[in-house]
Amino acid sequence: MIEVRDLKKSFDGFQALNGVNITVKKGSVYGLVGPNGAGKTTLIKHLAGIFMPDSGTIMIDGKPSFENTEVKAKTVYIPDDIYFFPQASLLDMKRFYKSVYPVFDEERFRKLAEVFPFDPKKTLRRLSRGMKKQAAFWLGICLKPDLMLLDEPVDGLDPVMRREVWSIMLQDVAERNMTVFVSSHNLRELEDVCDHVGIIHEGRIILERDLSEIQNNIIKLQVAFDGPLPGEINELDILSRQSSGRIWVLIVRGEKDRILSQVKKLNPIIMDALPLTLEEIFVYELGGMNYAAKSIIL
Amino acid sequence: MQQKASSFNKGIYFFNLRRFWLISFSFAFLLSLNILDFLRYASERVHRNSAIAGELASDIFVFTDITATVMFSAFSLIAALAVFSYIHKQDSTAMLHALPLTRKCLFITNYLSGLTLVMLPLLVGGAILIAGELLSGITEIGYSFLWMAVSSVFLFLWYSFAVFAGMFTGHMAAHALFFLIFNFLAVFLQDVIGTLLSSLVFGYARPYQSPFTPLSPIVYLVDVFLDLENGKGNYAVLACYLIAGIVFTLGAGAVYIRRRMESAGDVVSVRVMRPVFKYSVAFCSAGLLGSIVVDTMNFGRSFSVFLTSYLLGGFIGYFAAEMLLRKTVRVFRNIKGFLAFALIIVLFLSAVNFDLFGYEDYVPDAEDVEVMYVGYYMDDYAKIALNPENYNPERHRYLFDDSDYVDNPPSGLDESLIRQFRQRPGVLEEPESIRKATELHRAIVQNARLYKRLDRRSSSYYDDSDDTVYTNLTFTYRMKNGKTTERAYYIPIDAPGGEPERALRELVTTGEFRKKLYSMLEVEAGDISLVNVILNDEGGTVVSLTDKNDIEEFLDALKKDIANTDPVDMFLNHRKDSFTGISATFYFREGRAPAVYDRGMFYLTGNERRVLIWSDYSNTIGYLAEKTGLVR
Description:
The complex is a heterodimer of chains A (298) and B (632). Chain A is an alpha/beta fold and 298 residues long. Chain A is built from 10 helices and 14 strands. Chain A has a 6-stranded mixed sheet with strand order 6-7-8-3-9-10, sandwiched between helices. A 4-stranded antiparallel sheet of chain A has the order 2-1-4-5, with helices on one face. In chain A, strand 9 and strand 10 (204-210) form a beta hairpin. The radius of gyration of chain A is 22 Å and the shape is elongated. The termini of chain A are far apart. Chain B is α+β, with helices and mostly antiparallel strands. Chain B folds into 4 domains: 10-201 and 211-259, no CATH class; 270-360, no CATH class; 366-513, no CATH class; 519-628, no CATH class. Helices cover 56% and strands 10% of the residues of chain B. In chain B, the strands form 2 sheets. In chain B, strands 1, 2, 3, 4 and 5 form a 5-stranded antiparallel sheet that branches. Chain B has a 5-stranded antiparallel sheet with strand order 7-6-8-10-9. In chain B, 37% of the residues are buried.
């Protein structure tokens, strides 16, 4: 669905995107994670056709996305900072989107009134950030897009509404094979909905894989030896190590069974392999890229 | 394959009209008030005199020249700011550009919706105007259509430029500022350069009418409207404005399509324009501060004060621009750009001040001069005398004494009319007087270092520090090759004993100069049918001279007194005597009255002139004392 190759973009000498490559399959939910200033929003604005790339290609459904109305007609972009025309109500915005997009499902709009509990005649400017987000989803879902680009989509939504919104979108993914490209700092949430994840850092994609594959490729190993940590353990690709008495917690990259058999040979007293959350993977992967969380005592 | 994208979106167009209807409504309301005021005036006058209905129709231009100029430009800017406001904010830019529309489509749709917002009120105003005129009995509605057409050209120009200006910035305040700068830049630079040159260049004459004024359309529109009121519009300039509007529109579209949308929020959104912006702000700031300091404090025209003001203004402008561009106040480390700017300013001002171009020393050869003017104010008569090709029947009709010409000015000037204009005092055609004028000019140039450099004023200036009277003196040469050279000085020309004073005295005593300055010297008693002398007694006794001998004696006495007056004082209008309160009204025979150019003579009607009698006119006063016994 999305093919980005060697995408570069700079702002006044700052390299915001430095050769981004990503591939997103049709009907998947792709989560883009990365630290602040890594280039997430810049990448999404390129996918939405807002920014003009300095170099590189962006293909959506095999077609260039920039200035392509056909592609954009099937794409909905919901940014973090949502803009509605001043004084406009949801009904005004509905009329506006109906006049611009080729598809607007009135039936859906009526049905979604049961999900989003606010008066569509009310001026949107006066609504809270969360309510504006709801309004954006209400309208976006009615456009029945093939591709949904979401930048921090559920920031400001309460937990119940988050669940509702994701439920509706995943229904579209299942029924209409809609693709969702989502950038978020809420890794716990992405873990629940994404099937693919890309990690972006300093304008480059440093990791892009199927979520289950990522989770299988990195493990948290709890081990204890009768004595100090054997030197052979360093043959493993250890991303992090911490000790508490004789118990060591190692974050090791690699295939789970191979790691376990290799450690077993060193005769540990205790050996336990635990799956990592997406948040832990994010922290440890970026730790290797000089982005480790530092303990600062003030 | 990509489907063919539409270049216009009806939805956004009408949505914009609905969102911004208040702009259109306010404009229509204010414009209608202006038009209704005109209709009230016109209908009152038509009711009094229905014969003038046709003439009144053209008064719409006078009624709307200022208000329309202000309103047209203001509402054009407001409309452009409104429909393109989204490009100045990141969130709205993202929202609009994520829509399934091409940039071209977005630009055209928004552009047209803004243009509709400003053109609709004009249509409404035009409809009210035509309907009102017809109801008032004014059937000549051609002027109303002309008014609408001219107004639409200006609205189109301003709106297009307001849109164009917005394409170079991502900031709403800068958008408005760029628009204002465009409208006033030409007159501002004209003033700054004029102040600079007249301060540093001895003899620099500011042009009376700058060819750059049309580059400030907001200033020029008033002239255009006034010309059209007289039925003589400059349609070539209007066509240029129309073309400029089209060029701005196309340019704005081209920039929009290539615009980096991430520049929303930046003062200058197009990278290549950033240095242009920075150095332009620095130069304008330098010029502004230089002019302010010179106009308010630096009477002595000190080069060092001028240079310091320019450098200080440039420093402020340069770093203010840097701060705006970089969005930080920490910009003072990057000083190289300012140093380069300062060096150029120092070199430029030094070149001007030390006259590297030889402007100050140049005095034309008398043999190369066809006709010239020397005096302290070159009025329209003298301008037309030197350059009859600049004659404009509508603008210059007031120059004619003949009432027939005032009503129906000649379309062009024939030899006899040019000759009449060349009778103006100070206009010199004879080789002898031209030679003496160039000698005076050369004497001034050679004594330049003796003079303080003061700015020219409309009248004389007395400096009590050195008991000197400063006077404006202008030399304008029309060369035999058709070129014009002009120099203007503000100097104490009559400082006794100096070379310039001697040269001036020689000039003003030449036959041609005196004949033109005092046309009464050329009058013969046979030209006059009656002289009424109004005395300064309590009853204001009028003594009538009808006898030819009486008239001749009185005229001879008056001519002797005029001839006895110090010619330099007369030329400079420095009277050491005072007005007696006695005046003489001369009634000339048909076609014999002199032109009213000389000192102390006033035009009354076509054949009547009034002459004032001064206290040192001993011959005239003696004649009146002897004749009437009422004058001492």
